[in-house]
Sequence to fold (267 residues):
Amino acid sequence: MKYKILCSDLDGTLLSTKSDVSAYTISQIKKLRGTTRIILVSARMPRGMRYIQERLGIEDQPIICYNGALVLNGKEIVTSVYIEPALLREIYFLCSVLQTDLGLYYNDEWYVPKTSQRVQKEIKYTKSQPTFQETSTTLNNWVQRNVGAHKIMLMGTKESADKLMPLLQEKFSNTLNLYRSNDTLIEIAPKSVSKLTAIALLLDKHESLNDVIAFGDNYNDIEMLEAAGCGVAVANARDEVKVICDYITLENTKDGVARFIEEHWLI
Fold:
């Protein structure tokens, strides 16, 4: 099988560790570079993706960041959709009551009020550093600059997330995508964007989604995997993801994407 475009999620999919691609994956991607556009698609910020692009030798390709809220092609901004400061203040108020910290992301900026185990993990895994400052200071600065959040990460406890999630759904489900990453984390993004909408923006006039092969593992990959000409789940993917895919490859820790390329791609 051959496709014009390969789109892959990073964490839990293309990355064989928490923060890097293997030499084997690099070798398989190298085989495709002359004939296939290779686009990384992630919830990460640009800084957390560019070093992987460099490792794969695909710096000339666009990247889809923040699940589609920000798409970059080199220094060009293809699209940028963010959550307005007025909504951010409402979310901040709810979180303050439940003692939940906000991680705020805009382009390559990342702000947190203080360090924590979660923040240190993200620093380690994405090779990115946040700015430590009060959330109110960040929001005031963004109002002055007329910008907002491409992504919000709410960081609390299981108990606070249990209380916060239904409140957020009741108040913001029509305007925001709300996604519980795990027991303690809630991710928030603009409702109007997704990995799929971002991929569609990058198609040339003679290309369609049938020309795309996509790899993923999690709920936020489902729309992309369903719409692509070929959707491939790694073996560690959620069951709901595996059900809608055309193929299932090995786990990310066993280089599932690279193995699929080697076994199925006609070079």
Remarks:
- The radius of gyration is 18 Å.
